[in-house]
């Protein structure tokens, strides 16, 4: 990357670095009229662009994995290890990047199930919301244990794509990953108080995880230090991302279900057993791949800036129903979701909506303006867990403000309107009096965006009918 991978320590840093590279690559260059492309170069470009788009999550997760394991988690200042939870018991502040929410504690764990399954004990929780999103390194969710699926202490197994064997009798649920390497994200609700954050963190610590062999032998197990390769620098090497993808395919082959697609990539050096860094390809083919990598990266970055989805009557954008599952073959969308936020929770568990521009315009919402968000009576989100609306700067950080309020939701002590609806004031200055409880602060001089979250939507994907609050500029 711009200063090598040592500067990348979070998912947003990965996004920022790629965006800078993309912008730099887009600067006009005065040059002679390019020579006609050979058929070999053009064929490599066409196939390379397809392969880059398909395999971008593997490239992204290789960089995130290296940042987590070899450089250290940015928040917790420690290196992650295979099969060991990293639980983030920290107060979310405007210094934290990545579009964090203030409703849950987070935890994450990388697991390699290539050698053997891992066994996880799920503790009995006190009724608060929790979930663990399990996904492979293409971003595909293959498991989502949560409070809706487990009411008491349970033991579950995470197994690899080809594993066959006998599991302990106490295992009640098996999650089979389509790929040998996985990443899981834990979300544990807390009510915003320090006391409840401590209670939520105590529950998170009770999720235990160990390899099958250690579980069966009833042995104590401590994850050994991880050792993963460092992805190359795309500024110094125009094929750095493709070389990362080539290495990742050896470590973590794509799912068998994608075999018909991925077998064609062998023609450009992307297949099991091909590890020469594309030295066996012709100069023309390597030129084609370099073009494909540059353009592919630009396309992914561009997609993050115009994430497609359903637009509600009130102008909010709802993520696609395929988010987190990706069963429609739109690999560019899948790539953009990885770059933008690592993984999207399936809409059956949480529905995201975003508002990035003033309704009816192409201009970002401004911290110098004042807005209202109006929820009509009887039109609140219908959820089993909780809902919230957060404001973020375009750096995907929370907005610093004098009352340290970063969101409004079902736990906020707001004042309802006379008709039972709700008016939220989104502006830099406190509206004062009784309206202060309905204030979502912004910052003067800074554009911002809004994100809603609806956990445990009452009708699953069918709940994607809430139009969101009506947004109006009032000054």
How would you characterize the overall build of this protein?
With 475 residues, this protein is an alpha+beta fold. The chain folds into three domains: 5-71 and 228-299, no CATH class; 86-216, Immunoglobulin-like; 309-473, Sandwich (Jelly Rolls). It has eight helices and 20 strands. The protein has helices at 11-25, 39-71, 194-204, 212-216, 240-251, 259-262, 283-305, 331-341; strands spanning 86-88, 104-112, 118-122, 130-136, 141-143, 154-159, 171-176, 181-189, 208-211, 309-311, 317-319, 350-355, 365-366, 371-375, 383-393, 407-409, 422-427, 439-441, 447-457, 470-473. Strands 10, 11, 12, 13, 15, 16 and 19 form a seven-stranded antiparallel beta sheet that branches. Strands 1-2-8-4-5 form a five-stranded antiparallel beta sheet. The longest helix is centred in the first third of the chain and has 33 residues, at 39-71. It is globular and about 70 Å long.
Label this structure with key terms:
alpha+beta, Immunoglobulin-like, Jelly Rolls, 3 domains, 7-stranded antiparallel sheet, 5-stranded antiparallel sheet, 23% strand, disordered N terminus
Short description:
With 475 residues, the protein is an alpha+beta fold. It is built from eight helices and 20 strands.
């Amino acid at each position: 990357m711009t200063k090598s991978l040592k500067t990348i320590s979070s998912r947003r840093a990965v996004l920022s670095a790629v965006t800078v590279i993309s912008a730099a690559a887009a600067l006009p260059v005065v040059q002679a009229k390019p020579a006609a492309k050979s058929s070999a170069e053009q064929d490599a470009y066409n196939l390379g662009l397809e392969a880059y788009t398909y395999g971008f999550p593997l490239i992204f997760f290789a960089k995130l994995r290296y940042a987590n394991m070899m450089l250290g988690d940015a928040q917790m200042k420690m290196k992650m290890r295979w099969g060991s939870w990293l639980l983030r018991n920290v107060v979310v502040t405007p210094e934290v990047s990545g579009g964090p929410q203030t409703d849950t504690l987070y935890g994450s764990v990388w697991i390699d199930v290539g050698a053997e399954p891992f066994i996880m004990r799920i503790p009995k929780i006190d009724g608060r919301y929790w979930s663990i999103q399990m996904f492979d390194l293409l971003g595909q969710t293959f498991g989502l244990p949560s409070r809706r699926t487990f009411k008491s202490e349970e033991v579950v197994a995470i197994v690899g794509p080809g594993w066959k064997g006998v599991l302990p009798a106490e295992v009640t649920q098996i999650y089979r990953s389509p790929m040998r390497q996985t990443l899981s994200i834990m979300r544990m609700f807390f009510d915003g108080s320090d006391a409840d954050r401590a209670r939520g963190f105590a529950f998170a610590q009770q999720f235990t995880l160990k390899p099958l062999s250690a579980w069966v032998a009833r042995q104590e197990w401590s994850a050994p230090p991880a050792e993963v390769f460092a992805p190359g620098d795309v500024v110094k090497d125009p094929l750095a991302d493709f070389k990362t993808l080539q290495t990742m395919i050896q470590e973590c082959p794509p799912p068998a279900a994608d075999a018909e697609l991925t077998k064609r990539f062998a023609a450009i050096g992307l297949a099991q057993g091909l590890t020469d860094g594309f030295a066996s390809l012709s100069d023309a083919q390597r030129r084609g791949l370099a073009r494909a990598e540059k353009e592919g990266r630009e396309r992914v970055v561009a997609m993050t800036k115009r994430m497609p989805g359903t637009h509600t009557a009130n102008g909010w954008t709802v993520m696609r129903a395929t988010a987190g599952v990706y069963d429609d073959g739109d690999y560019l969308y899948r790539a953009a979701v990885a770059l933008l936020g690592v993984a999207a929770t399936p809409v059956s568990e949480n529905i995201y909506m975003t508002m990035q521009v003033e309704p009816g315009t192409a201009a970002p919402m401004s911290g110098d303006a004042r807005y209202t968000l109006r929820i009509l009576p009887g039109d609140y989100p219908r959820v089993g867990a909780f809902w919230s609306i957060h404001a973020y700067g375009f750096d995907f950080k929370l907005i610093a403000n004098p009352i340290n309020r970063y969101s409004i939701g079902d736990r906020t002590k707001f004042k309802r309107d006379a008709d039972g609806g709700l008016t939220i004031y989104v502006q830099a200055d406190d509206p004062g009096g009784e309206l202060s409880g309905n204030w979502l602060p912004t910052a003067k001089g800074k554009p911002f965006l809004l994100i809603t979250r609806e956990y445990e939507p009452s009708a699953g994907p069918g709940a994607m009918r809430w139009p969101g609050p009506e947004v109006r500029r009032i000054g």
